[in-house]
Amino acid sequence: MTAIVDLIAEAQTTEQRFLRQIFVRDQMTEWSKDPLLMARADGVWYWDVHGRRYLDALSGIYTVSVGHNNRRVIEAIHRQLDRLHFSPPMHGSNPVAVQLANLLSDLTTASLRSAQSPGRRGVEAHWTSKFECAGSEVTEAAIKLARQYHRLTGNPGKYKIISRYLSWHGSTLGSLSASGLKSRRAVNEPLAAGFIHVFPPTCYRCPFGKRYDDCGLTCATLIGDVIEMEDPQTVAAVLVEPIGHTGGIIDPPPEYLPLLRDICDRYHVLLIFDEIITGMGRTGRLFAAETFGVVPDVICTGKGLSGGYIPLSAMICRGSLAEVFWGPADSNPGFVEGHTFEGSPLACAAGIAVIQEILEQDLCANARRQGERLRAGFERLAQKYNVIGDIRGRGLLQGVEFVRDRPSKARFGGEPGIGVRIGRRALANGLLCRFDPHWLAFGPALCVTAEQIDEMLAVLDRSIDEVLHE
Fold it and tell me: Which CATH number fits domain 77-360: 3.40.220.10, 3.40.640.10, 3.30.360.10, 3.40.50.1580?
């Protein structure tokens, strides 16, 4: 027993001993040269095991929506822990999951009512939720829902999923197959069959060589052409992120998502929004669907739904879709999908508390206000540094693309890319943000203040200047 206690104590105090005992997202050899191990957090701040402090301009990873150490959420989890920490998912649900499902139904209806447009499918009276733990699970569930829905409604041949290059929908086999990042797909191929990819609406670098306002929205109309070429009787759903993340904050033109809605209606194809990142206030509205004025058939949300306190995600679908899965057991198996921790009482208690915080503190409005401040700050940096070629995003999901030459949009060469160099320098200067070779993004907590936005921008300013003068 003493030996076990000693091992636990050593693991808690000695970081070098367990560097080879844990996998992280980064390449292990590189990460272990200068490992980042966070020890505590509060508000929009992290502290690592060495006591260094970091401004969290990324909400952990677009997850800590209501800030670190939020007492409302922590106390809600404590209260639930005293009552019921796990309920048997094979036999039923629990009151907290039902309460959260009802709350999401009401909020989804209210949020999307303003997105309803004449001539397009409107907002239904109720929405139905399926709870999971992670974003990958819930996008996978949405893929299964689309296929099972068409099978139950007499169209078993509709199984194909259309998604986009540069997208990221998760790490499970189905969600990875729908994703469009070659770096993450190639090492796992062959992947699942039935997934088709199209180009995203990257207006700054149009894959069709066109310019917005005179392009005919080829990136959207092409999806209708693809459905035709594949045969509409084989296509089940179109799965998109309202704002693409991994491609460099791909903010579509205003007509893009409405066009997708029309195309999906025309061919009896479900429209699925992956709002794992963009949901729960990130774009300045509860859902990006409201931000863009489009009502999808399914919304996948996660990350900020539980504020990062306990893993929780939700697939929210139209009530009319959910009704298809009701019926006699001998002819209707229901929605065939299940996970051990779905509807966790602790996670659902956290979700309710997070939503209460967002609503009572009006954090969606704060996301809009601080998003405007963030955009203005990025624009000032673009005036100061001609390496910033484009600024994209909405609310508190915004990023910049770096270029060597603005007129030609030519990128920097060499490894690592300038975005990585600036991002790493920002981290060394005490700022956590999202960075890739050619772009960098901010996604701070919805409760971020104007002063904190300014401080984040000041650290980024310093970091860009240092990299450019290396």
Answer: 3.40.640.10
